[in-house]
Input
Amino acid sequence: MTSDRRIFLKTAGLSAAALASASSVLHAAEPATSPPPTAAQELEAWEQTRAESWDISWTKKVTGKHKAMFDVPEIEGGVGIFRAGIWGRQYTEVLKLAPSDLSTVIVIRHAAIPLAMNSAYWATYGVGKERKLKDEKGRKWAMANPMLSTASTDMTNSFSALLLDKQMENGAIVLGCGMAFNQLVTTVAKQDKLPPAEAREKAKSFLIPGVILQPSGIFANVMAEEAGCAFVNAV
Output
């Protein structure tokens, strides 16, 4: 674990045991540099999403007295995901609230979009190699989504509760950017030699159950704010 991430988790109040168990997972998620999309690529991605039908019923579930949306545009060791979980933990502990008093929305967009995909996608399409993310031993390319509880072993409950799937089990709403998702569709189409429509359906089959695609991450951000969420630049 890099020193800045260790400082971050210590500041967040995690125990020494949790830090030790977190070390391997965080090591698997070193940041990778992604070139920003060109205007032409943005327009092409927008055109590809126009024919989709989008589920915005999640806005009706943003009912907690305290609401926050965490914008996650980069993988960056998973800190954006952690911050969403830490916020919920701190609010319930410090303000003596019930979990039902909170509404957490996590928007996964831009270069972070692989975090919305299951470990089968990471293994099949070489996310670790593409993004230069090493496995928990730091020796091979990551073959699993490090923000899922199935990706690592021997973790304490204190740390595992901050992982994406555990937060979703506890009611967090997770939204994925449809425009960024098109990058993954292109990867599936190229590797599996599929036409666009088939590649899109196959790519969707790798989404983490419960992740809701939106037209774009910015669309999701604004919808969450209109639903009453405070905006948090999580990365």
Notes: The beta strands are 66-72, 102-108, 173-177, 212-214, 230-233.
